[in-house]
Amino acid sequence: MDATKITPLGVMVLALLxxxxxxxxxxxxxxxxxxxDRIFRIQNGTFYHTISSLERAGLLTEIGVDRxxxxxxxxxxxLSESGAAAVVDWVRRELTRLDRPxxxxxxxxxxxxxxxxxVLDLLTRRRELLAAHRDELASGLAEAATxxxxxxxxxxxxxxxxxxxxxxxxxDALLAQLADHSLAWGLDEVPADxxxxxxxxxxxx
Length: 205
What we know:
mainly alpha; elongated; single chain; 2 strands
């Protein structure tokens, strides 16, 4: 599967498997615990369809099926090498774009799958694009003021300008943390999620 055809949900599923082999129930519980459903709605049917699509594409592989008591069978999946590469390619492509807000949020959430230096470079490029867009908008607002355009027609543009200013400040703060290494980065620098351990203990009981 071409990385450009992977959905945001598919990328998050593949990225989860970097933390260890899991079955879909674990994945959904972990994503909801982390409030990934803030970004988009996670529906059971769509989730399992996504798993099937990723498996057919060879991005994840089935490594076993377990059945515990009266519980339904649960298939455990592992991330393939092509799946790991697809995550990196997808995040790398979406992290600089301004026209796909949902994809950018997912790319940002999964940016830790890239090396610190690359994320620093990609977000610096995105900041440059944001600054250019902000300057273009500011110029338009200034021109409108010289033509005495009533403010009621500029409310939306004014809001966008304020949001761009805030976004640029946020980029500056994150870029500084990445540059001075005050922000731990990558799975090797961050401890495993304790909730995943708790989740697995609960399922064994």
